[in-house]
Amino acid sequence: MKKPVDMFMGESDGIPDAWELLSERLSEDRRSRMMQIVMDRTAYLRLCLQDVHDPHNVGACFRTAEANGIQYCDFVNLYQKFPKTSSTVARGANHWLDISRFKDQKLYLEGLKSRGYKIAAAYPSGSAYELDNLPIDRPLVVLLGNEAVGLDDSWSEHIDYRFSIPMYGMTESYNVSVSAALILYSLTQRCRAQVPSDKFFLTEKSQHYLLNRWMARHSRSLANELDNMRRSRS
Fold this sequence. Notes:
Helices cover 40% and strands 14% of the residues. By secondary structure, it is α/β, with parallel strands linked by helices.
């Protein structure tokens, strides 16, 4: 199935009864684990990769995001094809995330603004902020650029916060996936400690929608399974 482009994913309720019907086949431990994980999910932070092309880097970034409870990740590809994800590195993390793909930068930026996000972009030097004092009073998108050339200049006027990660060696920058790990862990820990939980975590309604999407996503013959279960209950 062709993946949608230029639209934000994961904002619908999906199939309303997917969790109710299909979760019955899960073990009690698995079901409890999913219900616990969904309570730790956030949309307050999200990750955006611009033209990051190496599948191993993409996979590592997604794995970090998922491990930190970040539900939404975005591609904005201005020059390259959308990359595949290394399943070896990602360890299936992408199956638990809502991933959006954009070619239209303007549309993406308008969508972020309408959703209340500020944009924070990582630069090796010359930044107003360091990672530890990056403002977190508003929902935040972390923007990381291409492995070789970094972020495109077209972002400049739209970035709210330019920040850097402290370095003490001879190398000029971290690998993009290492940067993602350092940034997302730091921000997640700070937000969990300082941002009110009703703002940081998904609402109960959004959690339920996410459980529906997870169940639908992991069913190989979803339509048939749901039809059979609905008939058995009628």
